[in-house]
Design goal:
By secondary structure, the chain is α+β, with helices and mostly antiparallel strands. The chain has a single domain (2-169), classed as Aminopeptidase. The chain is built from four helices and seven strands; from the N terminus they run βααβββαβαββ. It has helices at residues 9-24, 37-51, 101-115, 130-138; strands at 2-3, 56-63, 66-75, 84-92, 120-126, 142-153, 156-166. Strands 1-2-3-4-5-7-6 form a seven-stranded mixed beta sheet, with helices on both faces. The longest helix has 16 residues, at 9-24. It is globular and about 60 Å long. Coenzyme A (COA) binds at residues 22, 27-29, 90-92, 97-103, 125, 129, 131-132, 134-135, 138.
């Protein structure tokens, strides 16, 4: 496993190879069409910039020296959501699935987000992506919500399933949940 550092041509080529193969099979990873090499170069440049904040990372998983899987994590903007980190773009080349690489990528992302101090991990997965959902469940995530019809592919509509995993809570955390009261609360008129 290697964290994205400087983006060179070889890395761009290899990541493009993985993303292209995943998207060619209809993989739900955020591209509706196979991206160009330039697209991937720009995308990796965005990750490179995010990585310098130390609040994000893209992990590249190599087998026999070649990138076969990848995935990213990104903490929320500093402030009220800064303790929440999102896992994203988890994918494994179709030729190397079922070997544990997906699990390795997700576990590596969890470890890094954990050591960066994240309290809560979130991710989104297309509802019909039962394989990925099983992977995330195997890695300790549970479903907290479903956005019906949140993904559009031509005239098809799919749910977005949102999942989370709590990593830690500060010892002095006061859990308000959704009860009325507390900072930012407001009473509903019928409660007054
Ligand atoms: C989802 C994906 C990343 C899984 O990668 P993988 O390397 O095949 O997964 P692993 O071999 O590490 O599987 C680990 C565990 O996840 C679960 N799992 C993974 N794929 C599964 C599937 N198709 N069906 C059921 N369980 C699955 C299983 O619990 C598995 O453990 P097991 O092999 O002991 O049963 C891969 O299929 C992929 O790249 N899909 C396309 C892109 C995508 O959908 N990414 C997720 C976007 S949210």
């Amino acid at each position: 496993m290697q964290w994205l550092g400087e983006v060179d041509d070889q890395t761009t080529l290899e990541v493009h190879r993985v993303v292209s193969a995943v998207v060619a099979l209809g993989g739900a990873v955020g591209w509706l069409q196979i991206p160009t090499l330039v697209d991937i170069g720009q995308w990796l440049g965005g990750w490179r910039a995010a990585v310098t904040t130390k609040r994000a990372g893209l992990v590249l998983c190599r087998v026999d020296g070649q990138i076969q899987a990848l995935g990213g994590w990104q903490a929320g903007r500093e402030g009220a959501m800064g303790h929440v980190a999102e896992l994203t773009k988890v994918m494994v080349h179709p030729g190397t699935r079922g070997l544990g690489l997906g699990r390795l990528v997700v576990d590596t992302l969890i470890d890094r987000a954990d050591s960066s101090g994240a309290e809560l991990l979130t991710l989104g997965v297309r509802g019909n992506n039962h394989g990925a959902r099983a992977l995330y469940e195997a890695c300790g995530f549970t479903t907290w919500g479903v956005l019906p019809n949140g993904v559009a592919v031509d005239h098809h509509r799919f749910d977005i399933v949102r999942m989370s995993r709590q990593l830690r809570l500060p010892a002095d955390a006061v859990i308000h949940g959704s009860r009325a009261g507390g900072v930012g609360g407001s009473p509903a008129r019928h409660d007054e």
